[in-house]
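FIELD: query
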Amino acid sequence: MSGKQNYINHVALVLDASSSMRHLSGKVVEVADQQIAYLARRSQELDQETRVTVYVFADKVECVIYDKDVLRMPSLKQLYRAGGMTALLAATLKSQRELAQTAQLYGDHSFLTFVLTDGQENASHRCPDAPSRSARDLVQAVATMIETQQDNWTLAVLVPDQMGKREAMQCGFPKDNIAVWDATSTQGLEEAGQVILKATESFMVGRTKGIRGSKAVFSTGAEVVNKKTITAAGLTPVDPSQYELVPVARDAAIREWVIECGRDYRTGCAFYELSKSEKIQARKQIAVLEKKTDQVYAGPEARALLGLPNAEVRVKPDHNDEFTIFVQSTSVNRKLVPNTRLLVMV
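FIELD: result
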């Protein structure tokens, strides 16, 4: 086959439709539809083909849409009905087993699955789709399946609490492919949708760099930054004569501090250190600093490296021994945190 291979993404949503999700039914449909609209837009912008599969699960597991072109997807409004128990393990196994039968001819195929649940497993042992009646066997079956999946498979799960996270880890989900969401409110579900959106953006941009799968799909912030990911994302090193690193010695507004340190202030010239969890707007630029050398890397790819979508999103700083994240300030009175540094572009 000559020429560039097509990037073909197979994205699956595996949605909990147990009784406890009933109060969130409308929001589940809205979030899923938003995700599909976003996938359609980004597939066209990045010239990637995306095919969507949707499973819903309660006492049994049902595939309601299979490998359908994202540009032709219906709303899930008529397809999502809540009621029953939570056959979480059976749903995970069935979705991956059936998707594995998808043809992978003529193209660079990649599989990305998000499982969303608001509770613990409690029904797979009597679900017709489960390969075993034993809870231990089912956990082992999921763990074995995840361990043996090829490098072009990414399986992620959103769980409601730390117990759910522990259970997901016992099932072999990579820790950075597990996210905790607030299952008590529509706002919590909306935030879960943002997390999925951000992970999808990171995945699709990664595809353009030749990355086929991820064991850290929910990682954002400093923890995803290293020499390898900087190179893969195509970040450019900034000429050291084009920036200064200014220590912040006290509580001060950003413009006030830049001027006090003897430099001119123009809106957007200064980047503050990401030191706490906060919302970052779509227009904000990002810079990455290598601590050992004080080399700064920047460019539009920096947002993609952190998995930031073109929308406002909450980002945690995360700990990284080698790199620091800086965020552009477009305000004059941004309060700086003492004992951090300010990156000023000359």
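FIELD: remark
Residues 186-208 form the longest helix (23 residues).
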